[in-house]
Amino acid sequence: MIKTSFTSTPSTPIPFRVSLQDEHKVVVLYSEPPHTTPSSTSFCFDPKLHITGVVREGRRRVALYGGPFDMRAKLNLTIDNKRSLPVLPDGILNRYCSSLPLGLTWSENVATVRLFHPRARSVRLVVFNTPGEDPVDELGMHLDEKCGCWSVDSDAIQPGQAYGFRVKGPDDVADQGNMIFCDPYGWIVAKSPGWPVQMLSIVPPPSLINLPSLPHVNLGKRGAMIYEAHLKDVTQLAKDVPEADRGTFNGLAISSFPEYVNDLGLNAVEWLPLQVYDDREPPFDTPDNGWNETGVNHWGYMSAQYFAPEPRYQRSWPKSDWMGTDPNIVHDVRNMVSALHQQNLAVIADVVYNHVGNYGQSPLRHLDPMYWLRHNGDGSLKSESGCGNDLATERPMARRMIVDSLLHWSRVYGIDGFRFDLAGLIDNGTLDAISKQLCKENPNVNLIAEPWGGLNDKRRFVIRGWSSWNDYYRDGLRGHDPSKHKGAILGGDSGPLLTHVRGHVVEDGGPFEEAWQSVNYLASHDYYNFGDFLRIATGLIKPKQVMQKGVDEELTPDIIKRAKLGFFLLFISRGMLMLHEGDEWLRAKIVAGDKITNRAMKAKLRKLPGQLDLDSYNRDDTTNWLDWEEAEDPVRSDIREYVKGMAHLRKMHPALRLARHANLHPLSSNDNSLLAYVTRVPGNRLVILVNLNENRKARVNLPEGTWVVLADETKVRNPNRGRAHTDVEVLPPMSARLLASRDQIRRGK
Predict the structure, then answer these.
(1) Which of 108, 197, 223, 265 has its CA 20 to 30 A from that of 466?
(2) Pairing of strands 225-229, 268-271
(3) Which among 258, 267, 292, 290 has a CA at the least distance from the CA of 278?
(4) pLDDT of amino acid 615
C-alpha cells in the first residue's frame, strides 16, 4: 500500500469505477485525485457491509478494506451520498485461471466435460439424443474453487448427441430461466430454426478429435496476393456446383473456384468469418430491430462460437429443422481447405475477437458478461466496436480461449493465416500471446490486422511482425468518399503516389518497417466495392438512385480507364495486395428485390431495391452473390484479363514485389505530380510511369537503354511486338507504363 501526499485541485473529483479486488478489498477509481483521503463515512455499501479501513493507493485510487465481499452478489457503493456505482468484479475474476482441457474430451469411453465459470452458483450438463427434443439426462457438475472450472465425467454420453449447460448464475446476471447454453469450446454447433435462436453443442466422436493436423501452404509475405471472399457468395450461383451444394463448404470443394483464383494469378483466399455467428436478427419492425429489414446477418461479423464452423455452410437445411447436427461438418471444412491447398492457395480466415454477437444465445454474452465483456464504470456494456458486447480480451481465460481457438483452426483445418477484425480492440498481452503461439505452431503463419477500433495504431502490429490493412493506401488511390473525397485515380492529390507504392515505410514517414506489412487494397467487403465507388465518383450513378441492373450500371470508358489505372498501381506497389470478390470485373452490388410502391414501407427501409449497397452485411441474395455469367460479358472479361495479366507480371518480375526501398530510384520529369521511377533487384530492372493528370501530357527522361512496354492503362502487352522506347517517354493524360529493357526480355527475365 502506497501512502503519498497530494496537491488539492479546484475541480471536484468524481468516482467513475468501483472494482472488487478480493473478498476483503474494493478499489474506487477517481477521474481526478481526491483533495484528501476520504473517511470511511464517505462510503456506503448496499447491501450494507462493514468497512475496516480506507487507504490511498495512488493519485486516483482509494482502497476500501472490510467485507467480506461476495463476487457472486449484486453490490453497489454510494460515495459522499451522491454517486452510486455498481461494484464490478474486476480484479478478483482475473485471479481465476486454468490450464485444464476445456470443452468435451475423451478418455477411453468416458467423456469429460469442463466449463470455466467461477461465479456460477450451480452448473448442470444437459444431454439430448436429438436437438429440439426433451433431454435424456441431466448431470450435476463439480466446481474446482481454485481455478473456477466446473466438470463432470460420464460414460453415458454418446457421439452425435447434443449437450449444453443449465446455469444458475451470479446475482448481477439476469435470470436465465430454463435457457441451456452451448459449450464455448464445442467443436460442432447446432442451431434451432426460427427466432429466437438456440444453440447446442454436438458430441464429437473420438475419431474427429484425433484427426491428424492438415499441412500448411507457405504464402510468402512479400509475394502475397489475396482474394477476399464470402464462402456462400462465390458458389451460390455457380453452374458447376449441384444446387444442393451451393453456398456450402462441400460446394466450394467441388467447384471451379480454386482453379479460378489460381488462374487469376492470386495465391491466397481470405474468407469472411467461418466461425459460428448470429446469422439471424430479430424480426424487422419490432422493438428490437428497426434497422435490418432482412433480419439476416450474412457476412458473419457477429461471432457466437470460436471453435465451431458456421452450420449454415454445411448444407441446405429445411427451415423447420435444426441445422448443424451432422459431425461431418469437420470433414467438409477440411475438404474445402484441401481443395484450395491443392491449387497452392493459402487460406486466411477472418476472425472476430473484438466483440460477440448481439442476439443469439452466445454463452460468452449470457453466462457471465462481467467476465467475458468489457463494462463502463456504471455497469453498462462498452461498445467501442460499434457493434456492442466488446470482448474483454485482457481476461486470462478470454486470452486463452482466443489463442486456443486459433490453434484449433490452424491444426484441425489447416488455416494458413488470420485477419483480425477491429484488431485495435485486442489488448497487447493477447496480441503477444497470439504471435508467440501461432508462430510456434506455424512459423509461416500470416497475421493481418484491421488496425482500427480502440487503439488505432498500426505500430502496435508492426512491432509484433504483423501486417495491417492500409487505409492510407486505399484512400490515397481510390478515395474515402465517392462524392466528397476522391483519390488520385479520380482526380485527387497524386503527389504522395511514390509513398503509396513504396509501402508507407518509415523511410517515407509511414508506420511500416517492411513493405510487406502494408496490405494494399482498393476496396473490401466494407463500404462500396471498387466498381460502385467508381460509378458514383464519376457521376454515372447517384448514391441513392434506384437503378436497373444490367442497364444503369453499365461501364463507361472513363470508369474502365480509371479502374485499370487503379489495378495497375495495386499490382506494381510494394507490399501484400488484396482484391475483393468480383472487383476484378467491377461487379455492382445492387439491392435485390422488387420495386416498392408502398410509401409507408419505403419510409421504413434504409435501402430500396435497385440502389447501390454500401454495406451489404445483411444481404443473403443476389446483392452479394457473384454472377459468374455476368463476368463473361466481353467488357467485364476484358477488365478481368487485365487484372490477370498484371498479376502474372507481378509474379514474373521480382522487382515489383521484392525490391528494397533503396532500389526504387525516382526519374526526372517536367511534372512534380507524375509517378516515375526505376525499381530493380539483381537481374530484373523495370521503369514505372504513371500520369494521373487529367489535362496535360508528361515527359519523362528514360534511363539509358532500349525499353519495351509490358503494360499500360489499357492492356498487358506482348513485349516482343511493341515499339522500342529510348531517351524520352511522353505520357498522355491519365496513362501508365510498365517498361522493361529489351535485353532483359530477350534473356527471359
Answers:
(1) 265
(2) parallel
(3) 292
(4) 94
Q: What is the structure's pLDDT at 600?
A: 73
Query: Beta-carbon neighbour count of residue 173 at 10 Å?
Result: 18
Contact 18, 27 (CB under 8 A): yes
Q: Copy the grid coordinates of residue 272.
A: 469472411
Kindly report the average pLDDT of the chain as a whole number: 93
Lowest mean pLDDT among 448-452, 607-611, 639-643: 607-611
pLDDT(334) > 50: yes
The radius of gyration of the chain's CA atoms, rounded to the nearest angstrom, is: 29
Residue identified by cell 429443422 is 321
Half-sphere exposure of 221 (CA within 13 A, CB side): 18
Contact (CB, 8 A) for 578 and 519: yes
Helical segments of 143-289, H only: 206-209, 249-254, 257-264
Name the one residue in this structure whose C-alpha cell is 496490405: 519
Distances (CA, A) of 76 to 130, 170, 376, 470: 43, 14, 14, 45
State how beta strands 446-449 and 467-469 pair: parallel
Lowest mean pLDDT among 133-137, 344-348, 364-368, 401-405: 364-368
Cis peptide before 47 (omega within 30 of 0): yes
Asked if residue 550 lies in contact with residue 481, where contact means CB atoms within 8 angstroms, the answer is no
Q: What confidence tens digit (pLDDT) does each residue in 186-241 have?
A: 999 999 998 889 999 999 999 999 999 999 999 888 999 999 999 999 999 999 99
Find how far residue 102's CA is from the centre of its chain.
Answer: 25
pLDDT tens profile 678-696: 999 998 999 999 999 999 9
Which of 68, 67, 88 is CA-nearest to residue 15?
A: 88
**Three-state secondary structure call for residue 62:** strand
Name the CA dihedral angle for 521, 526, 531, 532, rounded to a multiple of 10 degrees: -150
Return d(Cα 660, Cα 747) in angstroms, integer: 23
Q: What is the DSSP letter of 175?
A: P
Examine the pLDDT at 6 and tell me if it is beyond 50: no
Q: Do residues 698 and 670 touch, judged by C-beta distance below 8 A?
A: yes
**Block residue for cell numbers 456450402:** 248
Contact between 505 and 610 (Cβ < 8 Å): no
Q: Is the pTM of this model over 0.85?
A: yes
Phi, psi of 23 (to 5 degrees): -70, -10
| Contact in structure between 373 and 395 (CB atoms under 8 Å) | no
Half-sphere exposure of 21 (CA within 13 A, CB side): 13
Q: Which residues of 712-744 are buried (b: 16+ CB within 10 A; e: fewer)?
A: bbeebbebeeeeebeeebebeebbbbbbbbbeb
